[in-house]
Amino acid sequence: MEATVHLDTRQRIGPIDRRIFGGFIEHMGRAVYEGIYDPGSPFSDERGFRTDVMSAITAMNMPLMRYPGGNFVSGYDWRDGVGPRAQRPVRADSAWQSLESNHFGTDEFVAWCRAVDTAPVLAVNLGTGSIESAAALVEYCNLPPGTYWTDRRASNASEEPYGVGTWCLGNEMDGPWQAGHVPARVYAEKALAAGSLMKQLDDSIELIVCGSSSRNMGTYMEWDRTVLEHCWDSVDYISAHRYTAAKPDTPSYLAEGVVIDQILADYRGLISYVRALKASSRSVQVSFDEWNVWRRNYDMKGGWSFAPHLLEEEYTFEDALVIAQYLNSFIRNCDIVKIACFAQVVNILGPIKTSREGVLREATYWPFVMLSGATSGESLRVALDCPELETSGRGPVPVIDASASYDAEADRVTLCLVHRSIGHEIAVDVQLGDLRTSGVEVEILHDRDLEARNTWQRPGRVTPVPGRAKLVSPSAIRVDLAPPSMTLLKLDVSSLDR
Ligand code: AHR
User: Fold this and answer.
1) Mean pLDDT across the stretch 247-251?
2) 290 lines ligand 1 (CB under 6 A)
3) Closest Cα to atom 7 of ligand 1
4) Arithmetic mean of pLDDT, 9-32
């Protein structure tokens, strides 16, 4: 098989917001307790933070982290999680039928974010919570000392305000499973009231309003339209969520990039419609703040225990190829997606798993590290000429899923090619248009076995390895893609007219 990729720096989609490489941590299962916070572990520092987890997360280059939920937030009172630990109450978490010790709360989370060099994004409870408690959290985090809540922050943890810049107005409020779920219009009114109060306290904050929790919801897009029409002038982003489930056939599963593009096309259309309706000069963008592979069905009830082992999904090489396609799609749609959060980061659905012995990096960890580490600058349109792959669920799809970024300051082009067929190798000619290259570094994620995974016994089974590409001319390279695989090319470039 053969394919051609054409790149040209005159074909720019726009700047890539690095916040598409964000993460998400919820009080669920062992994500917080035994995940990032584990005071009993020999790996933990004096604050109880797992240092091995911090290193694994730092290597993911995540510019932001969403917290504390998720479904958990819709029954959470943040005031339970601040102040002296001995006085914090144990609560019943109805979302996951677990016990919450509240030993880790807002102050610990912000301190942890500082330690892993990521910006905290906080979700407020718009399920059982009031708009007053949402506003009080903004006051607690962002105002200078001198008020009831800011003096509490100063005595608990920090004189300095935290400056939390981005806030989620609840979580998945369209879902009947959500504590305090209400019809779209009712949610929109509460979100607008809460958001206005929060912005009156700190007008620099950005707000994310809840969109649909999945495209499978009967209210998909109708919920989003109602919410967006009502809150248009006050919010900055609408959220999108997706968890990719197992498919009966591999080709359909490996065509996931097509679905992510479709979801983003839906939001592009909706935003454009509401903007026209309002004759507005401002825009709202997408925060894809929960996404991942979630293949199997599990019992998600924690049996009223602390840090129950919920989900603990084990990921395969095939899943890693799906993760790469989510990121490719975010890069292709960078004009509309400004934030995205890999959900979740540790244990549960995480690319990092913990045990008493250390951390395991799942297969899904690697595409994220590869792309997050290499992507900067602007997204380039990838003109792709390649064979199609027949899928039962998605019809014919291009056999390659691709994204490219161009960093003019670093003279660097990054091209990510996911070969999603299990059949044949593909020889790809990469034509660099108005650029020449002086060198290329190639990284490949490949395994003959789609079910291959990293285990505690064999933790390095699925990891990136160096590959090769041939310089055919100063403006053309040739690379062979193994079936199936993710190949990342990092090219040192200069302009042809220089
Ligand atoms: O990430 C697990 C759960 O999935 C989150 O709590 C919820 O928002 C979503 O349905």
Assistant:
1) 85
2) yes
3) 70
4) 98
Does 226 contact ligand 1 (Cβ within 6 A)? Answer: no
**Residue 271 alpha carbon to ligand 1 centre in Å:** 24
Alpha-carbon span 71 to 287, nearest angstrom: 17
List, in sequence order, the alpha helices (H) in 143-280.
148-156, 184-201, 222-231, 250-253, 256-278
Task: Report the pLDDT value the prediction gives residue 300, as an integer from 0 to 100.
Answer: 82
Q: Is 71 in the pocket of ligand 1 (CB under 6 A)?
A: yes
Ligand 1 neighbourhood includes 447 CB (under 6 angstroms): no
C-alpha to C-alpha distance for 250 and 321, rounded to whole angstroms: 11
Question: Which of the residues are catalytic?
Answer: 172, 290
> Can you tell me which atom of ligand 1 is nearest the CA of 343?
1
Q: Which atom of ligand 1 lies nearest, measured to the CA of 171? A: 8
* CATH 2.60.40.1180 domain residues, the chain: 2-10+379-495
Mutate to test the pocket of ligand 1, among 71, 297, 346 (most ligand atoms within 8 A of CB): 71
2.60.120.10, 2.60.40.1180, 3.30.300.30, 3.60.15.10: CATH of 2-10+379-495: 2.60.40.1180
Read off the pLDDT of residues 346-367 as tens digits, 9 standing for 90 and up.
Answer: 999 999 999 999 999 999 999 9
Positive or negative torsion for Cα 182, 183, 188, 190: negative
d(CA 461, CA 233): 50
Domain 17-374 class in CATH:
alpha beta
Tens digit of each residue's pLDDT (9 = 90 or more) over 299-319: 788 999 999 999 999 999 999
Q: Which atom of ligand 1 is nearest to the CA of 72?
A: 6
CA–CA distance, 300 with 167 (Å, rounded to integer): 27
Does the pLDDT value for residue 113 go beyond 70? yes
Quote the ligand 1 centre to 353 CA distance (angstroms).
Answer: 18
Q: State pLDDT tens for residues 210-244.
A: 999 999 999 999 999 999 999 999 999 999 999 99
Phi, psi of 312 (to 5 degrees): 50, 50
